[in-house]
Amino acid sequence: MREFELLRYIYDANAALAGEIAIPPGDDMAMIRLAGRDLLAAVDQVIDGRHVRLETTPLALAGRKAVTRSLSDIAAMAVRPVGALAAVVLPPDFGAERAEALFDAIRATAADYDCPLVGGDIAFHGDASHPLTCSVTVFAEPVNGRAITRAGAEVDDVVYVTGALGGSVLEDGGGKHLTFEPRIAEAIQLAAALGPNLHAMIDLSDGLGRDASHIAEASNVQIVIDAAQIPCSAGVDWRVAAEGGEDYELLFAAAGDVPASLTGGLPVTAIGRVSPRRGEGEPAVVIRHGDETITADELGWQHES
Amino acid sequence: MREFELLRYIYDANAALAGEIAIPPGDDMAMIRLAGRDLLAAVDQVIDGRHVRLETTPLALAGRKAVTRSLSDIAAMAVRPVGALAAVVLPPDFGAERAEALFDAIRATAADYDCPLVGGDIAFHGDASHPLTCSVTVFAEPVNGRAITRAGAEVDDVVYVTGALGGSVLEDGGGKHLTFEPRIAEAIQLAAALGPNLHAMIDLSDGLGRDASHIAEASNVQIVIDAAQIPCSAGVDWRVAAEGGEDYELLFAAAGDVPASLTGGLPVTAIGRVSPRRGEGEPAVVIRHGDETITADELGWQHES
User: Fold this and answer.
1) B12 has a chain A CB within 8 A of its CB
2) Residue B205: its chain A contacts at CB < 8 A?
3) Best residue of A4, A10, A82 to probe chain B, by most B CBs closer than 10 Å
4) For the whole prediction, is pTM greater than 0.95?
5) What is the pLDDT of residue A128?
6) Using N-to-C axis directions, what is the helix angle for B59-77 and B96-112, rounded to 10°?
């Protein structure tokens, strides 16, 4: 069973609750209306053997990634971090020094992004062969009353991506998936610069095609990407860049003028356009490469059982 | 390394952040001040083989417990649930039907306590021998501007407990630890009835002695419990009741009149008194049993590695 199908199962059954839920589950963060104020929340996980490999990954980078994965959801909504909670399950022989190193990294990373760790839980597995798991919940608040969802892309919008794609996981297990910067400041900068012209946004965690399809599905449009325009990391071709996943760059649909780069020189590249979606059978995302048109809805990384 | 020492390590290092954190980590929930409003948050976990045993525990009860453990933290603060997020790691062969049954239980339990599931994450282990883990983050808001912390017990307060203790885990793995009711409504009722006379509260998860010591340490007092007054579950003596853990009843310190029972007939029993604590070397909690005085700080369940 696929993660996405399961999540959809959960969210669909939850739709009846939408009264106080301003943005229901299924976007990068949910938003709840709380006595007239909006609060956003999201949770993400890092598991040894799946998202990191503690045999080779330094603990500090594992702890960092546990937080930055969730922070990237905050970036995707262009909202402001408020606080984080971390729940960790350790193998019984993990050791105090290593546990402290892990939590130092979690706490320091959260603090670095103004998202202080305010709570946590630690539990131990019964068996030393069971892997470290770490879930991090983050809270955030809207900026100028706004949070940018996946829904809202309009026909004739241009589709943009920040940074370069495809350098995420190197053969030695390292790479940008351990060291990426959640684009929180850049997202807030974009939302301020574009105002109502910023229509929809997501962070690239699963892969360009798959994440673009989340915007296309939520907005009921088709996204057409030009392979030649995809900004690729050094040594990587467009197919790897589109399939890689874990880039944690921003993908967004906007009208009007868009800056060519953001604070710190982060490039913004137009890679495609929003088209009408003619029917259910039509792909949500296609990539044009010369004369080829490739269905890209499934291009990317999928947690599959 | 003990869970409590690790948590203390984390919290101590976090104390510098206390500016926007109205109740710092270390209580049942943290409280964040968010643009003039207070938001409480907590996270707790359920792991197969530790808190439940899926070989014998029905999935519906495992999912229920994953939520009720966190809801009990909301009860401990006498605050109002707002929403929940669940992060689950499944063995790869878990199966779609069972995953749906688990999430049905999580969602239904959260809804039952007016704490709607608004977000979640699902990941899969790499190996079928790795256990299901489920972390649930809950958030809540103060009631009438208040949240009841562990700090605030005063000398000469009476110490009370709701319900009966010691029936938590039966030999067959069942028992109240799977079916307990988080005392949210009762806690809010207590806070309304007692007003400023309700000084400190906690939920009984680790055991009477250990949880009482959390109040005593946070309040810088000693708690003296009378063994003869401890309300015991059927067939259980006071030692088992004091050591059992996972009762998820309320333990609180209050002055003045306290109702003998709460809505639904839940009994409230006076079991002890708050004394001055003379020095660091003195126990935080003692139980008097006839002529015996037993140091009870460590009486209870401890997640130990």
Assistant:
1) no
2) none
3) A10
4) no
5) 92
6) 30
pLDDT in tens, B59-108: 999 999 999 999 999 999 999 999 999 999 999 999 888 998 999 999 99
Beta carbons of B1 and A43 less than 8 Å apart: no
Instruction: Provide ipTM, 2 decimals.
Output: 0.88
Residue with tokens 């340490």: B217
A49 touches chain B (CB under 8 A): yes
Q: Which amino acid is at B152?
A: G
Model confidence at B6, in pLDDT bands (50, 70, 90)? low
- Annotate B238-300 with DSSP letters as a single string: HHHHHH------EEEEE-S---SEEGGGEEEEEEEEEEE---TTS-SEEEEETTEEEE-TT-S
Name every chain A residue with its beta carbon within 8 A of the beta carbon of B6.
Answer: 96, 99-100, 103, 122
Cβ atoms of A201 and A186 closer than 8 Å: no
Identity of the residue in B39, B44, B49 whose CB atom sits nearest the CB atom of A121? B44
User: Residue A276 has what DSSP assignment?
Assistant: E
Instruction: Please check whether residue B62 is in contact with residue B95, taking contact to mean a CB–CB distance below 8 angstroms.
Output: no
User: Out of A35, A41, A86, whose CB is closest to B118?
Assistant: A41
- Which of A248-262, B11-25, B48-62, B131-145 shows the lowest mean pLDDT across its residues? B11-25
Q: Is B76 on the interface with A (CB under 8 A)?
A: no
